[in-house]
Amino acid sequence: MTIDILYFAWLRERIGIPRERVDTDAATVADLVDELTAREDRYAVAFGDLGAIRVAVDQELTEFDAALDGAREVAFFPPMTGG
Amino acid sequence: MTIDILYFAWLRERIGIPRERVDTDAATVADLVDELTAREDRYAVAFGDLGAIRVAVDQELTEFDAALDGAREVAFFPPMTGG
Amino acid sequence: MEIRVQSEPFDAGDALTRFSQGHKDVGAIVSFSGLVRVDGGLRYMEIEHYPGMTAKAITALAEQAVARWDLRDLLVIHRYGRLEPGAQIMMVATAAAHRAAAFEAADFLMDYLKSRAPFWKKEVGADGAAWVAAKDEDEAALDRW
Amino acid sequence: MEIRVQSEPFDAGDALTRFSQGHKDVGAIVSFSGLVRVDGGLRYMEIEHYPGMTAKAITALAEQAVARWDLRDLLVIHRYGRLEPGAQIMMVATAAAHRAAAFEAADFLMDYLKSRAPFWKKEVGADGAAWVAAKDEDEAALDRW
């Protein structure tokens, strides 16, 4: 399946791009992260500490064990600092 | 001693005047209330339920057993409803 | 710190704009404004106060708030006299570096202004006038602090 | 209920004035405004957000507040982009018949906007830029609700 992946804040800066489109068979967010980190060092560095990263699937906050079944957009970012 | 007595809200309405000056030897606020209620019915009615009345001596909230020693102004009023 | 006791109407938004300007280490501003509710039965509200004591009592409450929370500034405006439905009765604003202090101090000030500042509200309606009774819950709210 | 996500500056006082007008059974209005602190080291703040998600996430929080408290109205404004020291970052306003609901709902919305709305703050100073780290206390604050 084809998924748009978005990166925000320091995750965007470390990976070097705000978004990309990937073809993947990853079943869960965690599987997708494994695929990405296997690709290039900058991904491995950016995703080094998953405890410091939050994820949204189709614009809803979720967990790393969430299924990607039918997902069209996955976003990774640090804990939010609004307000 | 001479004391100015002030009445507010429904206490003022029941007694019929906003303030008066009295000569008194009352030692405490409670003594002063006894003197007033002995005077006329409208005072007895107004002071009928002391639980519903608050008192300030020289513009500081206090209790009915407070001493009047040196006091110049005593105010009686219902519980406050500001804000 | 500014405390105003006045019969004149005021606009809480204008007051907030002025209050917000010219501060330095302020990240958070909380305001509370109390309004005369618009309801069919009410013609107007009349607020009596104790002129000699009012500003003094509010100042004492404000000083308690300043002693207890790390505030950068504080504003209290309270009207007396005749107020029409929809009018602003009063407002409190607090400015602090952090939001918790600004929220708590404003909440504290409101609880104490309700029950410890010498104001008395009377509602005048089509059927006559009645003094607003103090609520047990307003007295109980003071125990939070 | 109004939710605005915008890069344009706004004035919290003006917004409060507009928010306060034309309500009926409203006795209490609480506002919170967050400002960029004025401190020597900070040149400006840059706020990044997630356009597709932001308004949706804030709307979901606002709906939670409306379901939980008896509110008459609610306003959220949040800026993104470059903000100068002293600028308003965001504001929340709540209108209710009673003060407790207005205070609690505003406090709740602030806690959740801090940690659950997709905004990220970067501080740009003389010595370079740094992303603002989320605070443990902000995450812990959610347990209050």
Q: Averaging pLDDT over every residue of chain C, what do you get?
A: 96
Largest sheet of chain A: 5 strands, mixed
The average pLDDT value of chain A, as a whole number, equals 96
Class of chain C, according to the CATH hierarchy? Alpha Beta
Distance between the termini of chain A: 36 Å
Tally of helical segments of chain C = 4
In spatial order, strands of the major sheet of chain C run 1-4-6-2
Which percent range fits the helix content of chain C? Answer: 25-40%
What would CATH call the architecture of chain C? Answer: Alpha-Beta Complex
Largest sheet of chain C, in brief, is: 4 strands, mixed
CATH superfamily placement of chain A: Beta-grasp domain
The coarse overall form of chain C would be: globular
Could you name the CATH topology of chain C?
Aldehyde Oxidoreductase, domain 3
Helix-strand pattern of chain C = EHEEHEEEHEEH
Number of strands of chain C: 8
Based on secondary structure, the structural category of chain C is: alpha+beta
User: How many structural domains of chain A?
Assistant: 1
The total of beta strands of chain A comes to 5
Distance between the termini of chain C: 21 Å
Quote the CATH topology of chain A: Ubiquitin-like (UB roll)
GO molecular function (chains C, D): molybdopterin synthase activity
Subunit structure (chains C, D): Heterotetramer of 2 MoaD subunits and 2 MoaE subunits. Also stable as homodimer. The enzyme changes between these two forms during catalysis.
Pathway (chains C, D): Cofactor biosynthesis; molybdopterin biosynthesis
Catalytic activity (chains C, D): 2 [molybdopterin-synthase sulfur-carrier protein]-C-terminal-Gly-aminoethanethioate + cyclic pyranopterin phosphate + H2O = molybdopterin + 2 [molybdopterin-synthase sulfur-carrier protein]-C-terminal Gly-Gly + 2 H(+)
